[in-house]
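F.,

This is the one I mentioned.
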C-alpha cells in the first residue's frame, strides 16, 4: 500500500522476515549495499553507516550509464529494531540544506515485519518525489528478494 503526498513519500510494506533481520538490512553495510540502489552496485568500501543519533551515513552507487551517485545524511533517531530517522540528500542537493527526513518504522506483523517508510521535507518537486517513490518501491522489491535469501 502506498500513498501520494505532495511534499514527500509514504510506502508501507510487509516483508516475510523477522523484524530483527529487516532492521539489520537497514543498519549493516553488507545488507544495505545488497538492496539499496536496486541493480546499481554499492561497493562495500564506498558505504559507511554510523547508526547512532548524530552519526553520519554515506554511500556511492555505481549506476551503469550514469556513473557515481553519492548519497548521505545524518541519523537523528535510532531505536533498535523499531525506528530509524535520518536525513538524506544526494550530490545534486543545494549546499546548506539538510536534506529530506526519512522515517522507517518496523513492527511485528505475525511472523512477518511491517515496515512504514516516509520521506518528507519538501526539498524535491512533485515530479522528483514521484520518481523517488518509484525508486524506493524498486529498492524495496530488491530488499524483499534479499530477505528471502536469508
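My design for it:
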Amino acid at each position: 500500500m502506498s500513498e501520494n503526498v505532495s511534499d514527500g513519500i509514504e510506502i508501507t510494506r510487509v516483508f516475510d522476515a523477522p523484524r530483527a533481520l529487516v532492521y539489520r538490512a537497514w543498519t549493516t553495510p553488507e545488507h544495505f549495499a545488497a538492496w539499496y540502489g536496486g541493480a546499481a552496485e554499492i561497493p562495500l568500501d564506498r558505504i559507511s553507516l554510523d547508526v547512532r543519533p548524530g552519526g553520519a551515513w554515506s554511500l556511492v552507487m555505481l549506476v551503469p550509464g550514469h556513473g557515481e551517485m553519492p548519497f548521505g545524511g545524518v541519523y537523528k533517531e535510532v531505536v533498535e529494531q523499531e525506528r530509524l530517522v535520518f536525513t538524506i540528500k544526494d550530490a545534486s542537493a543545494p549546499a546548506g540544506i539538510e536534506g529530506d527526513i526519512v522515517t522507517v518504522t518496523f513492527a511485528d506483523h505475525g511472523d512477518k515485519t511491517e515496515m512504514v517508510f516516509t520521506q518528507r521535507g519538501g526539498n524535491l518537486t512533485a515530479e522528483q518525489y514521484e520518481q523517488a517513490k518509484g525508486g524506493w518501491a524498486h529498492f524495496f522489491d530488491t530488499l524483499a528478494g534479499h530477505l528471502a535469501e536469508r
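The domain at 2-148 is CATH 3.30.530.20 (Alpha-D-Glucose-1,6-Bisphosphate; Chain A, domain 4).

Talk soon.
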